[in-house]
Amino acid sequence: MDRTRWLSSLLVAFCLLQQYVHSVDLPPPCDSEIYCTGDILHHVQLAKIFNDDKHFVDMGLKDTPANTIKKFQSLLLRYKSGPIDREKLIEFVNTSFTHPGTEFEDWNPLDWHEKPKFLSHITDPALRSWAAHLHDLWKSLGRKINQNVKDQPELHSQIYVPNPVIVPGGRFIEFYYWDSYWVINGLLLSEMYDTARGMIENFLYMVDRYGFIPNGGRVYYLRRSQPPFLTLMMESYMASTNNVTFLRENIHLLKKEYDFWMTQRRISVERNGKNYVLNRYYGSAGDPRPESYSKDYEMAAKLTGGENQTFYSELKAAAESGWDFSSRWFFGSTNSLLDTKTSSVVPVDLNSILYRVEKALAKFYTDLEMHDEATTFSTAHSQRLEAVQAVLWDETLGTWLDYNINETRRNPNFYPTNLTPLWASCYSDPSVVDKVISYLETCGALDYQNGLPTSLKNTGEQWDFPNAWPPLQHMVIEGLEKTQSKKAKDIAFRLAQKWVTVNYEAYKKYNAMFEKYDVQGDGKPGGGGEYEVQLGFGWTNGVIMQLLDLYRTRLTSSAACASFSGILYTLPILIITFWI
């Protein structure tokens, strides 16, 4: 080939590559010079005016961004030779911003009613009464965004969505992506079908607008997503309503979100001479996370050279996983956040979720008689099944494990997510169930009275020991319960009873539900991480409602007392037997 033809071919290839890149729906950058980058964010967050960095970036603007920036630049000019006076900075914030939460209006869900059917199925009177209180909490966790956010979006970090949302609670006063899966499942049990559908419509609106769903409902979350549960939300909604028209109108957006994960978060892994396509979490480089700016900035100051850019990227990837933060992502010598390498991990749970997504989409397309698309997704989930088994299954331990592409090895540590292929039914050989049960019994994770720990490493991070989190309990319990193994089902029920007990006892003590719990002791709320434990709490309530419905006649509010009574009952028999 002569030089001219070679250059011409190279140019064509480059143009085709450009077309492909521009055809992909990339997450839009947050270009706000108030909430995502710029001098105001930097100075205010490093001054630590508020105990929680999130407070500032959730405040609304009283004037336009341009006028606010101009006002701040005038303040900066007065302090050329040193830092801005703290009192002047506080004055600037107080005169320029409104309090978080002012972007909402009062909302009372019209589809809430007092006695959904699932309550009557719960045998234990105390648990039934508790479930009724949880059902009532949807009203206090509901939010509707006011019209001003739609008309003047530049004055808010809140992203406008057309329908009311159920928020997690506490500091989280906007929707969050993966939290909403368990919230929606709870709403469906509460027969709040309109509210559940409205939340799904909000997520579809996000996909249509951005090409993906951001981590949460703020502009500063626009560079990362969270575990992709939208299709599974639709699956739950369809199981309750069979609204085929709604599915048909929006199936293209479910596929659009899937395409985001398969273009922006895919990775090829070579094992035994064959390449497998799987998925990972990923974050863009750049600045600290606005909602945790001071912590990220101060941590990055310990690094040298350009390592801080990579560090910020890895923190965002961990936040996208929902596990922010955990030893699960630590690979290095410090065993701290500085060793976070999330983007090098092929996670078991993400690929299990996507397997279920592919399987659900195959069924949806079949139901809609769109057979070519159904075949595409049937092939996709078959290929993922093979990839998960080839890359993530560990025959020695008898479980699935995260795979590190940089170190070309699996992470041998316990995490509840190791069992998520059971929840996704992402296995073809029934014998793996017995192996996974054996793994679970020998790894030590079942030894705690208040549920499964998130890991067996105590690092001080909130997604590590001794914390236990609702979604992980539910995925493991549901995964064990759906097998054909009696032993697995027995373990599932015991875990459900533990989790219901710790939540119920904490509720009686604190009159609140929490986002996480301690697996040790009397079941106090969990701790560690970047902020104080939050109460509310959306997904906690949804998980408990699902477990109370699943084991409606078996769960008891007096499990600990019943166990103690059993000892008292058998003790005289043992004494008599010994005496004889």
Number of continuous helical runs: 22
| Mean of pLDDT | 91
**Counted beta strands:** 14
Structural class by helix and strand composition: mainly alpha
User: Gap between N and C termini, in Å?
Assistant: 101 Å
The amount of beta strand, in percent, is: 5-15%
Taking all Cα atoms into account, the compactness measure Rg is 25 Å
Which term fits the overall shape?
globular
The neighbouring-strand order within the major sheet is 3-4-5
Q: Give the helix proportion (percent range).
A: 40-55%
Largest sheet: 3 strands, antiparallel
- Regions with little confidence, pLDDT below 50 for 5+ residues: 1-25, 560-580
SSE blueprint:
Blueprint: H1 3-23, H2 39-47, H3 53-57, E1 60-61, H4 65-77, H5 86-96, E2 97-98, E3 104-105, H6 117-120, H7 125-141, E4 142-145, H8 147-151, E5 165-166, H9 179-189, H10 193-210, H11 230-241, H12 244-264, E6 266-271, E7 274-279, H13 293-300, H14 307-321, E8 345-346, H15 348-367, H16 371-391, E9 393-394, E10 399-400, E11 403-404, E12 409-410, H17 420-424, H18 431-442, E13 467-468, H19 470-481, H20 486-510, E14 517-518, H21 538-550, H22 559-579
Antiparallel strand pairs: 1-2, 3-4, 4-5, 6-7, 8-11, 9-10, 11-12, 13-14
Helix pairs in contact: 7-21, 9-10, 9-11, 9-21, 10-11, 11-12, 12-15, 15-16, 19-20, 19-21
